[in-house]
Amino acid sequence: MNVDVLAIGAHPDDVELGCAGLLLSLRARGYRFGILDLTAGEKGSRGTKETRRKEAKAAAELLGATARECLELPDTRVAVTESAVRAIVERLRRWRPALVVSMSPDDHHPDHAACAHLVARASFLAALKNYDAEGEPHRVARVIRYSRHPWFVPSFVVDITDHVEQKLAAIACYESQFTRRDDTGPKTPISAPDYDDDLKAYWRHHGSGVGALYAEPFAMDGPPALVDPIKALCQQRRDVD
Questions:
Q1: Quick check: helix, strand or coil at residue 23?
Q2: Which of 2, 28, 207, 220 could bond to 212 as cystine, CB 3.0-4.6 Å?
Q3: Distance between CA 135 and CA 126 in Å, rounded?
Q4: CATH number at residue 184
Q5: What's the rounded Cα separation, in Å, for the pair 117 and 124?
Q6: Could you give the residue ranges of the DSSP H alpha helices within 29-71?
Q7: What three-state secondary structure class fits 99?
Q8: Are the beta carbons of 34 and 62 closer than 8 angstroms?
Q9: Helices (H), the chain
Q10: Which are the contacts of 238, defined by CB distance < 8 A and separation ≥ 6?
Q11: 208-231 pLDDT, tens digit each
């Protein structure tokens, strides 16, 4: 069940919101990806554990994920514990991704920040032969981070213009969280009728600097090693009206 990319989120829907455009873009280029949720999102204001599990399965199928798994860590209480680190190490060794896509340590949700620290630690330890976890050692080539908050400063952005509608469709799989109809459930920012407009505005902001209609932002530690700087840095910008 090897994958090229493993996208990790604290809750179901974090991956869809943060990096589904990247995943769709990579899949279109022939890469395989998996999704790892740390919790089932059972403490959220809307939905149930069972409902969110079904929604996550539907979203993974729509995106074309090779596999999706939930570690069942306690929602709202994700912490950097040895057992949690070991669980992530074992998934990294099982799926053997070159690229790991994780969350930002600066996100205001404490589970998101904990997810970032857990993944950073596990990605390092997965390569150590004598680290006590199942599976053969595996070295992750690069960890990148996503966020959807306005203070997030990216290292690079990815043009998702060709995939934005499918990304929105994957987000819409989480009907319990993003429903647009009037109901009696708790009102949250993400259930607001205009939340799609907020998302598009964020992606348009990050796309504007590179001539793309929509783009997702990502951060990473250290500079990339570019074999062909011309190809990597001087691509023709998309014409945007």
A1: helix
A2: 207
A3: 9
A4: 3.40.50.10320
A5: 11
A6: 49-63
A7: strand
A8: no
A9: 14-28, 49-63, 82-95, 110-125, 164-172, 175-178, 195-208, 229-233
A10: 159, 161, 211, 212, 213
A11: 988 899 999 999 999 988 899 888
Domain of 171 in residue numbering reads as 5-233
Domain count, the chain: 1
pTM of the model: 0.91
Tokens of 1: 């069940």
Tokens of 160: 């998702």
Q: To the nearest whole number, what is the mean pLDDT of the chain?
A: 91
DSSP code, position 161: G
Residue 239 is assigned to a structural domain of this protein: no
Going across the sheet that includes 5-9, the strands are 67-73, 33-39, 5-9, 99-103, 142-146, 215-220, 156-159
Contact 91, 140 (CB under 8 A): no
DSSP class of residue 191? G
